[in-house]
Design brief:
Layout: H1 13-23, E1 28-33, H2 40-49, E2 57-62, H3 73-79, H4 120-138, E3 141-146, H5 153-164, E4 170-176, E5 197-202, H6 208-219, H7 226-236, H8 240-249, H9 267-277, H10 281-293, H11 299-304, H12 309-317, E6 322-324, E7 328-330, H13 334-343, H14 346-361, H15 368-378, H16 381-397, H17 401-413, H18 419-435, H19 440-451, H20 457-472, H21 478-491, H22 496-507, H23 516-531, H24 536-552, H25 558-562, H26 572-592, H27 595-612, H28 615-631, H29 638-649, H30 653-669, H31 673-685, H32 693-710, H33 713-730, H34 740-749, H35 753-767, H36 773-789, H37 793-809, H38 813-829, H39 835-849, H40 852-864, H41 884-894, H42 899-906, H43 910-924
Parallel strand pairs: 1-4, 1-5, 2-3, 3-4
Antiparallel strand pairs: 6-7
Helix pairs in contact: 1-2, 6-7, 6-8, 8-9, 9-13, 10-12, 10-13, 10-14, 14-15, 15-16, 16-17, 17-18, 18-20, 19-20, 20-21, 21-22, 22-23, 22-24, 23-24, 24-26, 26-27, 26-28, 27-28, 28-29, 28-30, 29-30, 30-31, 30-32, 31-32, 32-33, 32-34, 33-34, 34-35, 34-36, 35-36, 36-37, 36-38, 37-38, 38-39, 39-40, ...
Length: 936
């Protein structure tokens, strides 16, 4: 067999240029996908070879088929060698200190470790932020994570976090096998950050010409026959690695028939067998040990498991084994490992796994996952169960709940699992899932478990409760989860504490499709179950939900109930429940329009979150604060803050709805209608029965306003009917504060005045006696809309004026401007000469907020009545700076809007817009609309 050099990168010129271009323009994300052996790693290495030495750090991390419960291991593996690029510890972001235990090699170069949070989700997010801050500190850098298809869910979550908002100097490169993924390699549809250079590079098999070029480079020949190349392509399917292995195994390449000796479909197996045949018995034994180990291992472990140091050196020199960073040895490719492993006779494989188990068990800290794997392969079921269960508990203790779930799932999937072990494992799975983040496979597994009849009634009820909680919380499927919780509650007759937990979840009225009386019944049952109990944590949880319940509906005793929370209790679990209560109160008080009280609840909640380490509750408060800022008119930079918050809550759909609502409302106010519609769908309109009803109803109000702005009256009325149906079904009318006035307007436009009048009265009755300033101000606005639709303009102006004053008092400046606009229109309709000044004032208020579409609508009225409109002008940094109107036009051009669409949004003629667009292009120095970037 001839000796051949390492092959050139063949057939990948375009892909190579793309990867080089992207990684040299950070922040950047490159996803390289393709089947095993297609050349993903080779492409990445070639691209890194074009990065000037010392120009940026190159950090390499690898995912392995068998992994131990070390959270985010591939990323930490990549970070271990960056000490030389770190600034002094005092110059680093203090949050980086959270990585000291994960990166002991860098402990002396990192800031002090912050105190523990005692909340796995909060700790997880702090670690994510610390990793991002560390990468920012060593930037510019290229972080390469190989073989993402073998990654744990925690690593995927971390990479999603980095991809959603990467540090400015980071280029992230990820390789994975597409065929081994169920959907996206990152677990959800990949949407890169708008400021990130991003590309997906799919690698496909080589064509005949490229196979010939690769084979020629391998054999250092340019005279390969067409027949040989064609046959080689047929036999290898154009997969570069298989081409390489087959060609390396050939004695000659004179005839196409030479390839027949390799065989199909065992090409790679036979190629590896040929290479193994030239090794001594010591080297063969060592290679086989490496194949049984499956993951790269050190020399000591390989020899302890039956290998040989001299054999290891021989295998390395022959290119059968490959040295990985850190003095570990394994195969260059998983296909090679599998080929060797499959060639070992069955009894010898079993004995080899037993030897590996003994070597692993003798280590100071035995890798439990590997022990479980090798025990299973050796047929030792008792050891498999022992090590597997221990591995799951260790993973959970380390905060890697996703891996704990994965281990138990795999054990439950095994057909040789003893029947007596299924019930205990099924309950372990459900308990891990209750507090974990993974849900897709867990839901499937729990449903499968519940279909079987091996569980006791008590275990079945607990598993069903956990399924309901996972569906309702992690999966965001309240429509599917709540019936499971209801069934479980009825089955948990002998476990009142678990039943109370389920009932307390059902009782919160913002979720589900049940009416308020039904929620009240559940709340009362939960309270009864804990009344005589001795579980302070559970009793506090139920009391928190009662306070949350009263606040959510605007009950006047909500504050009195909240004052009974045991805030002086020193038990950590109790105080965390109280923290959750303040987060819930903050959310509900914002909805009610009690902003001063809401801020007090937020301050108390944040204080308790710091004291108890319940940072997750602090995140809930932060997300609600986005909505608070929108309502109270703090719009400066709000869009950017909302987008930044979205990366924190991307994996928790119930929390994210506030962010999408606010982004939708901001887009509506600036005439970005397609964007607004998309955000409103994300806020819950895509599946309203699954959503958080107060937010869903507000999103429906935004969508209704959007339909009215577009002149789609039929769509607007349909939106009204759907939203009012949900309010009537739930019977919590205070949640319709944003909806009621535009609903009456839409019904009035449709000529359905009697129906509109009935709706106003129904709403008035529904909020009577409720502690809800927002709802009462909305009632005045709705009465103004009803009077206006009936032509009673004096009455309408009076109602609108009361609404405007009430909103201004809260304060809600945007809602106050809307009410003021209604008042001005009513005054104009009755011939009031001061209406023009009122419109000018309202236009200015809209403009100050940034509601450019609303401001343009008022200025259109002023033009129609002959009042000169003067746009406010800011200071210009240079003569080519855009005016305010040109900035508005540029923003819509950057969004891809046509001149007609821009004219509709800004209430201008198409000809005027054409003139503005031409000026924008000239001032920005660009040739076409597609080159216009959104103004900053």
């Amino acid at each position: 067999m001839s000796s051949v050099p390492s092959p050139a990168l063949v057939g990948r010129a375009s892909e190579l240029r793309t990867v080089i271009d992207v990684i040299t323009r950070p922040p950047a994300v490159v996803l390289v996908e393709g089947e095993a052996g297609i050349g993903k790693t080779r492409l990445v290495r070639a691209a890194l070879g074009h990065v000037p030495p010392g120009d940026r750090a190159v950090l390499l991390g690898y995912c392995h088929q068998i992994r131990e419960p070390f959270p985010y291991g591939p990323v930490f593996e990549a970070l271990r060698d960056i000490a030389g690029r770190l600034p002094a510890a005092g110059a680093l972001n203090p949050v980086i200190g959270a990585l000291g235990d994960y990166l002991p090699e860098l402990a002396g170069a990192l800031p002090p470790a912050p105190p523990p949070l005692n909340d796995p989700r909060a700790e997880r997010h702090r670690v994510f932020r610390a990793i991002r801050a560390l990468l920012a500190a060593v930037a510019p850098a290229v972080l390469v994570i190989e073989d993402l298809h073998w990654a744990d869910e925690g690593t995927r979550d971390l990479l999603r976090f980095l991809i959603d908002q990467p540090p400015a100097g980071l280029s992230l490169v990820v390789t994975y096998r597409r065929e081994e993924q169920s959907g996206s390699s990152l677990g959800r549809a990949y949407r890169h950050h708008p400021d990130t250079t991003s590309v997906v590079v799919p690698l496909v098999p080589l064509d005949v010409t490229d196979v010939g070029s690769l084979a020629g480079a391998l054999l250092n020949r340019s005279d390969l026959s067409t027949g040989f190349v064609t046959r080689l392509h047929e036999r290898t399917a154009g997969i570069p690695f298989v081409v390489e292995e087959v060609v390396r195994s050939l004695a000659d390449a004179e005839e196409p028939e030479a390839l027949d000796r390799v065989g199909v479909p065992l090409l790679l197996r036979e190629a590896m067998a040929e290479r193994m045949a030239g090794l001594t018995s010591a080297a063969v034994r060592t290679v086989q040990v490496a194949a049984v180990l499956r993951v790269p291992a050190g020399e000591q472990l390989i020899t302890a498991a039956g290998g040989d140091s001299s054999g290891l050196g021989e295998a390395l020199r022959a290119g059968v084994l490959h040295e990985d960073p850190g003095g570990r040895y394994g195969f260059r490719h998983a296909l090679a490992q599998q080929a060797v492993y499959d060639a070992i006779p069955g009894p010898e494989r079993r004995s080899a796994h037993e030897r590996v188990m003994a070597a692993l068990a003798a280590m100071d800290s035995p890798p439990l996952v590997q022990l479980a794997f090798h025990a299973r392969q050796a047929g030792d079921i008792e050891a498999w169960l022992r090590h597997g269960t221990a591995a799951a508990h260790r993973a959970a203790a380390l905060g890697d709940n996703a891996m704990a779930i994965e281990i138990i799932e795999d054990m439950l999937d095994d057909p040789d699992l003893p029947p007596a072990e299924r019930a205990p494992l099924a309950l372990k799975l459900s308990r891990f899932a209750r507090t974990g983040l993974s849900h897709q496979r867990v839901v499937r597994m729990l449903r499968h478990v519940l279909r079987d009849d091996f569980l006791s009634p008590e275990a079945r009820a607990e598993a069903r409760l956990d399924l309901g909680l996972v569906l309702s919380n992690q999966a965001g499927d309240t429509a599917g989860g709540r019936p499971e919780i209801m069934t479980a509650v009825e089955e948990l007759t002998d476990q009142p504490s678990l039943a109370a937990r389920g009932l307390a979840c059902l009782a919160l009225p913002g979720w589900g499709t049940e009416s308020l009386p039904q929620h009240e019944q559940w709340m009362a049952r939960a309270e009864a179950l804990v009344a005589d109990g001795d579980n302070p944590e559970l009793s506090t949880a139920v009391l928190v939900n009662r306070a949350s319940f009263q606040a959510a509906i605007g009950a006047k005793d909500a504050f009195a109930v909240a004052e009974t929370l045991p805030v002086g209790d020193n038990r950590l679990a109790v105080r965390r429940e109280i923290t959750r209560g303040y987060a819930n109160l903050y959310d509900s008080l914002i909805t009610l329009g009690l902003f001063t009280e809401a801020e007090r609840a937020a301050r108390e909640g944040r204080r308790l979150a710091v004291e108890t380490g319940a940072e997750y509750c602090a995140y809930l408060i932060d997300v609600s604060s986005i909505r608070m800022e929108w309502l109270t008119g703090r719009w400066e930079g709000l869009r950017e803050r909302a987008i930044a918050m979205s990366d924190v809550v991307a994996g928790t759909p119930q929390i994210a709805v506030d962010v999408w609502l606010v982004l939708g409302m901001l887009a509506l106010a600036t005439g970005e209608w397609d964007e607004a519609a998309r955000h409103f769908q994300g806020a819950g309109l895509d599946a309203p029965d699954n959503g958080y009803v107060p937010i869903v109803e507000t999103a429906a109000a935004g969508m209704l306003e959007l339909h009215l702005a577009r002149g789609a009256l039929d769509d607007a009325v349909a939106e009204v009917e759907r939203a009012i149906f949900r309010l009537r079904r739930k019977a919590v009318w205070v949640w319709g504060a944003h909806l009621i006035a535009p609903a009456v307007t839409a019904l009035g436009f449709a000529g359905r005045l009697e129906e509109a009048a009935d709706l106003v009265e129904e709403y008035a009755a529904g909020i009577a006696g409720r502690m809800a300033p927002n709802a009462h101000a909305a009632l005045d606005a709705a009465r103004g809309a009803l009077a206006s639709a009936g032509g009673c303009h004096d009455e309408a102006a009076a109602h609108y004026a009361r609404a405007r004053e009430a909103y201004a008092e809260m304060p809600q400046p945007y809602a106050a401007a809307h009410a003021g606009e209604g008042e001005a229109r009513s005054r104009l309709a009755r011939g009031d000469t001061g209406a023009g000044a009122a419109f000018a004032d309202i236009a200015e208020r809209y403009g100050e907020l940034g509601a450019t579409h609303d401001a343009a609508r008022c200025r259109r009225v002023l033009r129609d009545i002959g009042v000169e409109v003067q746009l406010p002008r800011g200071r210009r940094a240079k003569t080519s700076a855009l005016s305010q109107r040109e900035t508005e036009v540029a923003r819509l051009v950057a969004l891809g809007r046509t001149n007609k669409e821009i004219a509709d949004v800004l209430f201008l003629s198409t000809r005027t817009v054409e003139s503005h667009v031409a000026t924008v292009l000239r001032k920005l120095g660009v040739r076409s609309r597609t080159e216009v970037a959104p103004p900053s």
